[in-house]
Amino acid sequence: MNDYRPESDLPFDHESKENQARAGWRWLRWLSNERFAGLKPTLDLLARAPRHRQGRVTRSIRHAEIREQVDPPGVPRGYSVALLVSLGVTLAAMPLLPYLDHANIVMLFLLAVIGVAVRYGRGPAVLVAVLNVLSFNFVFVPPYFAFAFETLQSILSFAVMLIVGLIVGQLTARFRYQAQVATAREERARYLYEMSRELSGALAAEQVIEIGERCVEASFRVKVRLLLPDDQDRLQPPPVRPGRPKVDIAIAQWCFDHNDPAGHGTDTLPAASLLYLPLKAPLRTRGVLAVAPEQRRLLMIPEQRRLLDTFAALIAIALERVHFATVARDTLVKMEAERQRNSLLAALSHDLRTPLTALIGLAETLALELTAEQSPHQESLAAIREQAVRMALLADNLLDMAKLQAGGVRLRKDWQSLEELFGSATRLLEQPLRDHPLRLALDSELPLVNCDAVLIERVLVNLLENAAKYTSPGTVIGVTAAASADRLTVEVWDEGPGLPAGREPALFEKFARGQAESAVPGVGLGLAICRAVIEAHGGQIRAENRAGGGASFTFTLPLEPPPPLETDDESDPEPA
Q1: Burial of 138 (0-12, 13-18, 19+ CB in 10 A)
Q2: CB-based burial label for 551 (10 Å; 0-12, 13-18, 19+)
Q3: Which residues is 441 bridged to in the sheet?
């Protein structure tokens, strides 16, 4: 039975055909866009993958960019090519019909589906598969040049060919998509590798800024500014350069302080033209990366944003490494300078002690002889002796400081009486303290202190001498001592001009003085020695201004329970 009916017998409505074509086209667009919407961010990334800074890109990405520029917005090029391919394979297979059976002709149509899927993806592959099935049924299945779906064989051929075409097209398109994803990941891995390699060789923060800005701009086709904080954690505005975006310091500072992104594409000030990313390092935030995109929607793609966050993390780690490298280098320089200075001070003070001791002895001998002769030069000789004693104390301070810094001083502790230590210190400072009334307020029940008598005596000598030097004659100098449960507190105070406000802790640094330019002799080591000695004993020392005027230096020493007294049993045993 011939099922062929002339085309004139078939109903043909031009308006309905046009509506059907539009509906079919909308269905194909939905199938290619909505069905695979979960893959669209990555596909968009592949179509707009950033160029390498030397201009090298993969061929597939370059072709995608070219197609995006030249294709008309109404009909994508892939679907146009699918229509031409279906028509072309149909025309090419028509002369082969007398020589090939239907199975071989079907292979040609499937080959066309594979080619379109490899080149243009899922949507065009679906379109060419449907068109090929319709063309095969219309041209190669009897009745020729008519759609025949009335027999079971024609329906089965149509269904099998359509299913096989769709499956082959989908698998091929999936392989193409996976290849593009692998290519894009390779590009990202290369960008990260090249940036990390360049950052690993950076030795200064300026080099990290230059490398970071250059690599991010080349990888993302954006404009970048990198902002670093100062010592007070305030971001410094970058230098103004032509072609560089203008950075809002207020937004960047907020991003730095809160360690959270701000600006374009974020929940904080999304209307800003730039995206501000904090440079989060393992220990702290090292700066802010300000990004001005050429196409604002690119930074909304998750893949692009994750890659940008990775770049920011690399820059932050490089900045932290450079920071600690600088700190380590400065520390080594300071340690070496300190070692050289201590060696020089130790040698100088050791060589000065012998002649100064001899000078003091000769001055005392001459003072005795001139006293017996009632010579008018007694006052001059007394001044010579006083200056020699002062130089001897200075040499002792230099030597003690060098020993303390070198760790060469061992505490020789013994149970000492604080009253005896004060008496010994005042005897050594008889001349400096002769013009200052001394007030002692020592607790009558002060316990014995387990300490190094020589070093604690040196602490008292330095504090009393310091009070005598920086106060005018006639100024009262006082000493107060009291004991608590586990601490002995000693305070040396005066009624002089007091200490510079805000510099109290700095006075205990080596070679630090209350006044930078002063006629008072000294090199600023006395208080540094006091702190080193007190801390070696496990105590603390501080300086402060008194409420009624003057300065106060207070140190504490830990109290230990005294050992039990050993008594000899003098009673003789009774004879048996």
Answers
A1: middle
A2: buried
A3: 480
Note down the domain range covering 63: 18-196
CA torsion, points 256, 261, 267, 272, in degrees to nearest 10?
80
The Cα–Cα gap between 29 and 520 comes to: 92
Identity of residue 50: P
Those residues with Cβ within 8 angstroms of residue 8's Cβ, 6 or more apart along the chain or in another chain: none
Distance CA 193, CA 195 (A): 5
In sign, the C-alpha dihedral spanning 518, 520, 523, 526 is negative
Whether residue 115 is contained in a domain is answered as yes
Q: What DSSP character marks residue 281?
A: -
How far is residue 288's CA from residue 279's CA, in Å, rounded to a whole number? 5
Query: How far is 184 from 61, CA to CA, in rounded Å?
Result: 9
What is the secondary structure of 27-81 as a DSSP string? HHHHHHHTTTGGGHHHHHHHHTPPPPTTS---HHHHHHHHHHHHS-SSS-HHHHH
User: Helices 77-93 and 102-120: crossing angle, nearest 10°?
Assistant: 160
Lowest mean pLDDT among 8-12, 171-175, 544-548: 8-12
Is there a single domain that holds both residue 189 and residue 338? no
Instruction: Tell whether 568 is covered by a domain.
Output: no
- The rounded distance, in Å, linking the Cα atoms of 121 and 115 is 10
Give the pLDDT band of residue 388 (cuts 50, 70, 90). confident
Which pTM does this prediction carry?
0.53
